[in-house]
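re the bet — no i am not wrong, look at it urself. input seq straight from the record:
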Amino acid sequence: MRRSMPLISILTPAYNAAVTLAETAESIFAQRFTDWEWCVVDDASTDGTAEIIRRYAAKDSRIKPIFHENNDGAPAAAQAALALAGGRYVTVLDADDYWLPEKLSRQLAFMQKKNAALSFTAHRRMNENGKKLGPIIHPPAKLAYRDLLKNTAMPNSSMMVDRQITGPFNFRQVNYYDFATWLSLMAQGHVAYGLDEDLLRYRVRRHSLSSNKLKAIAKVWHIYRGVEKLPLGYSVYCLLSYGAHALAKRAGSP
């Protein structure tokens, strides 16, 4: 990856995100760090998402939009954004979340100091209206593959990957594609380091997959058994630990 390319590529898959996307975009423009590109994919939205993307892209050449004709789903949209990305560092910002202004600069400095392949940050949850829910959720100092199997500490929009260390990668085309993809990188021996600074607002929607506990459990179970091919007993152990961490997360513990 040539240095003439932006240092950080921001990836955003977006589907019917007109209500929140402008806030997401403004949080990118508010970043202290400016050597970025925004690869944003409209996945055949039926609201005003595409128009919002076009409006921002017309103002700033750092924005690289993609407009899907068909709704291919979040994993495919994320992969399309990744295929367009030219930065050494890749970070995801979901279309209903937003960053605080120091997110990119602080996380980049942290990764360079640690020589880290992956990192994630502290964050706070918010509801659909942007109201904060609970305390700051502090990350563990680091997570390896077996740790992540049992933990919910790495929200997608907090992640950053150094592709010079990991090498090229693709997003797994499964539900919870982010969780599955970080597992695939960490299975190679990479460790994710936690930056204990509050730099993200993560939106919890009433009808999202993560808010539907039974569906979420089913998707995690599929990753254990269908994707990672874990033994049955170990899968049960990991799922119980995963659930315990999810409860602790609400109280602000890693």
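see?? The chain is about 35% helix and 20% strand. told u. also The two ends are 34 Å apart (CA to CA). so pay up
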